[in-house]
Design brief:
- By secondary structure, the protein is α/β, with parallel strands linked by helices.
- The chain has one domain: 3-Layer(aba) Sandwich (Rossmann fold).
- The protein contains 7 helices and 5 strands, in the order E-H-E-H-E-H-H-E-H-H-E-H.
- The protein has a 5-stranded parallel sheet with strand order 2-3-1-4-5.
- Strand 2, helix 2 and strand 3 form a beta-alpha-beta unit.
- The chain is globular and about 45 Å long.
Length: about 180
């Protein structure tokens, strides 16, 4: 088992990613980096980010690129081989946390935001379903972001996995 030296937080808009990233950043004393869509070769961009960063929490990654690529840009930007290589890297060196609250909670959060969002409220359900699909075969912790006790539990679990990784620790014991 390789040492887990990065955490990837994935999930649809309004799912609690930013809160989780901030709490993990403060707890682990790691950097955080947002990997929102940018122009260019997406495979090379994510491969470079994933391989060159250590002790960092990524807010979004190639799974978001795939979901929002399908939703807004006409398709997945990765070939099957590219996707498999990025997925394999995540399986081996990253802790993936999937923020996935009930749709009702996402809708409430959407309506409480006082700024224009790229996603439309009617796209929340589809984006949530697409994330569930792209992450179904990736070991991850699921965070429903419904209460502070759950947030504390996810942070504790992440700390333990990071601390114990690389020393004969079974990551899948704590993943959903």
């Amino acid at each position: 088992m390789a040492k887990i030296d990065t955490i990837l937080i994935e999930g649809p808009d309004c799912s609690g990613k930013t809160t989780l990233v901030e709490q993990l950043k403060n707890t682990l004393h790691w950097d955080a980096k947002a990997l929102h869509h940018r122009q260019g070769d997406q495979f090379l961009r994510y491969l470079k980010e994933y391989t060159q960063q250590q002790e960092v929490i990524f807010n979004r990654g190639h799974y978001s690129e795939a979901v929002y690529g399908q939703l807004w840009r006409g398709g997945n930007p990765f070939s099957n081989d590219e996707k498999e290589l990025l997925d394999q890297f995540c399986r081996q060196r990253m802790l993936v946390i999937f923020t996935c609250p009930p749709l009702e909670l996402m809708t409430i959060r959407y309506s409480q935001r006082h700024y224009k969002q790229q996603i439309k409220i009617e796209e929340l359900e589809q984006s949530r379903q697409l994330f569930c699909e792209v992450l179904k075969d990736i070991p991850h912790i699921t965070y429903t972001s419904q209460h502070w006790e759950e947030l504390e539990q996810v942070i504790e679990t992440a700390q333990k996995i990071v601390r114990d990784s690389g020393v004969q620790y079974d990551l899948n014991r704590h993943r959903n």
